Every structure is written in C-alpha cells, then in structure tokens.
Amino acid sequence: MTLKTATRRTRNLQLGVPAVVLGALAATLSSAPAAASSTDMKPIERQRTAPVRVVPAEAAPPSHVVQPGDTVAGVAARFGLRTVDVLTWNGLSWRSVIYPGQTLTLQAPAAAPAAAPAAVAAPPAAPSSATHAVVAGDTVFAIARKYGTTVDAVLSANGLTRASVIFPGQNLAIAGSAPSAPAPVAAAPTATATPSASASHTVVAGDTLFGIAQKYGTTTQTLFALNGLSASSIIYPGQTLAVHGAPAPAPAATPESTGGQLTAMLTTEQAGNAALIIRIGRELGVSDRAIALALATGMVESGLRNLDGGDRDSLGIFQQRPSTGWGTPAQIMDADRSTRVFYGGQNDPNGQTTRGLLDISGWESMPFTAAAQTVQISAYPDRYGQWETQAYAWLALYS
User: Fold this and answer.
1) What is the end-to-end Cα distance of the chain in Å, rounded?
2) What are the b/e assignments for 355-364, b being 16+ CB within 10 Å?
3) How far apart are alpha carbons 250 and 247 in whole angstroms?
C-alpha cells in the first residue's frame, strides 16, 4: 500500500507542475498583447492628432538666375509670386523665352520706373552712339535700368519687340535717334520698288493667310511683309489685307499711329461668344468699359472664337496658356470660365494665381489699350485700342 500511494503522489506531482507553469505562461501571454497594444497605439495616435506641417513658400529674393529647366511660371510659383508680375517686372511677354544664366528681377521696381519716362524724351533730341554688349544673364529690363532708360526705348532703338530674345555678344544701341532712323528710310525704297500693284483682299469667314496667298499667287511671307503681320497673327472677317505691292503698309500702320478704329460683322460663333462675354460681365457687375475691354481683347486674341490652338500652348477666346497658370487646357477651353478669369477679381476661378482686369489697380483710368495689355502682356499692345469703338457697338447690339 505504501508503495502504491507513493507512486500515485509522485505521478500527481509530475502532472501538477506543468499545470502551474502553463497557467503562468498563459497569464503572461494573455496580458502581453494588451500591453503591446497600448504601446503600439501611441505612435498612431500621435500621427492622427499632430497638425499637418505646411511648408512655407520660399521668400522671394531680389533676383533669380535662371537654371536649366526653369520656366517663368515655375520660378514665380517657387517664390509665391504671380507669373504675370514676374513678366511685367522683367519687360517680358507671354511669348518671351528665358535661358540659363539670365537674371530675373523678382521684386517690383521702386523709383526707377517713375524716372524712366523723362529719360525717354531725351533720345530724339540728342542722338547717341552708346552701345551695350550683351553678356550672359542680361535682360532688356536690366540694361534699360543700367543706362537710365526704359525697356520700350531700348526695344525701339534696336528694332525689337517684347517677344524678341537677346543673346550674349549682341550689341544693343542704348539711346538716340540714330539707330531708329533707318526704319523710315527703308520704307521709302520699298514703296518705289513695286509701285505698280495695290490690290487688296477683304477677309471673309474661313479665310487663312495661306489660302489668300495661294489665291493671289503670292506667299505668306509676302503677306506678312505687306501687312505688318507675323506667323502668330490672327486675321478676322472684314479685315482688309494688301496682297500686292508696297503702298499698303502705310494704311495698315495708320490705326496704330492715329487711333483709327477697326470694324467687323460677326459670324454666328463670334456673336455667341460676344454675348457670353457681355452676360458674364453683367453677372459680375462690372462696368461697360470692362466688358468693352473684354470684347476687344477677345477680338484681337482669337477673332472672338474659342480656338483650340494658337501661339505655343495658347488656347481659347483670350489665348490663355496652361503653362503660365491660366488653367488646364480643358478649363481654358471652357469659354465661361476663361472669361471669368479674364475679368478676375474676387470671383476669379484661378484665385490669385493669375491677374485679371479687376485685379489691376487703377485700370479704369488707364488708356483702353493699356488696360487690356496689362492683363494680356501681348507683343502687340496697340491692337486692342483699334477695337474700342466697335466693342461698345457690340455691347449695345448683343446686350
């Protein structure tokens, strides 16, 4: 009996020890996940409750040296500026090309612009032979400031436009009437070289410069030269083009120099876009002058047509460019939206990214063409004013 009892006790003891161990182990395992879960949740909770870190816009320095791959729009966005402001401060247009090494001004000029007009008046009276050799990083704006003149004076003295590109090694005349004198002299021989022809063509809907050139047995380059046009120019119904001879350029220049006005009968498409521009203007509560400016601008830029192409990536009625922040191609082709972007102001779909008419301080007191040019930054600013009278007529007709 004693042996059997001892054997049972030994066997029960052997079975009892693992049970204790397993019980302790089970308790440990059951409590560990809770502790681990509590510890692991803390980083997650911190991620949920921590505020989102907003990277501030990089402060704009006085200037920026263009690097490979830079664009005006990209530089402006980097420093929290509007593309149109950077273009204006550097005397550039939407068609201008920047290049590595060029220096862009990133702040509005202070006193220099106010003194510049006085410097412009001097060159016609006192011819000067001063020249400037362009070096890498030069801009027309910087050169004009260096010599106490204006961008327009430098461009005029060298036969350039705001779309022109200067390059290292190029010599620019700085001031004086001597550099600009050859222009009228060159016009006279041209007029006498082909005195026999003075035919003209009145543009109708569907006309193209290439088709007109073929019709009259000439070339598009000849049409450009006779009418003061370029490959990016837009023709419109009712416009008169010289097709032979050189006497025609004088009338073409007359509207710009004397304030002559252009007129046109609108097609169904053009009239529809004019009515849309007027309707949106009325909805926004802008003045008749603002609507007339929008109509004239639309006529100059696209012939009041919602074009799906243009210079570079320009699109729509106002030839706005996706690459410079005016919106996506689809947004720009939305005539309603692009018109609101032209007007700008508090209801601008682009917000502060672009600058519309209502965003320009004192636009009401600006000359008609200057107000439109401040929005569009065109290489041909004088063309807007040629449609002022007609724009008001369209406003009365399609309201």
Assistant:
1) 122
2) bbbbbbeebe
3) 6
Tokens for 206, please give them: 């569907």
CA 235 centroid distance within chain: 22
51, exposed or middle or buried, with CB in 10 Å at 0-12, 13-18, 19+? exposed
Whether the pTM exceeds 0.70: the reply is no
pLDDT of res. 186: 34
Q: Where are the beta strands (DSSP E) in the chain?
A: 63-65, 103-105, 131-133, 171-173, 200-202, 240-242
pLDDT of residue 232: 65
**Residue 336 contacts residue 306 (beta carbons within 8 Å):** no
Looking at this protein, which amino acid is placed at residue 121? A
Q: Please, what is the Cα angle at 93 between 97 and 264, to 5 degrees?
A: 130
Least confident segment among 10-19, 29-38, 265-274, 355-364: 29-38
**191-258 to CATH, choices 3.10.350.10, 3.30.470.30, 3.30.565.10, 3.90.1150.180:** 3.10.350.10
* Phi, psi of 202, deg, nearest 5: -95, 120
The residue type at 34:
A
**Cα–Cα distances in angstroms (integers) from residue 47 to residues 41, 284, 393, 396, in the given order:** 10, 44, 62, 61
Return all residues near 393 (Cβ < 8 A) that are at least 6 apart: 263
Residue for token digits 């509590």? 38
Residue whose pair of structure tokens reads 């082909």 in the numeric block: 194
Exposure letters 55-69 (e unless 16+ CB within 10 A, then b):
eeeeebeeebebeee
CATH architecture of structural domain 63-173: Roll (3.10)
The rounded mean pLDDT for the chain is 74
Instruction: Name the band, by pLDDT with cuts 50, 70 and 90, for residue 10.
Output: low
pLDDT tens sequence across 281-327: 999 999 999 999 999 999 999 999 999 988 888 999 999 999 888 99
Q: What is the DSSP letter of 221?
A: H
Largest alpha-carbon pair distance within the chain?
Answer: 148
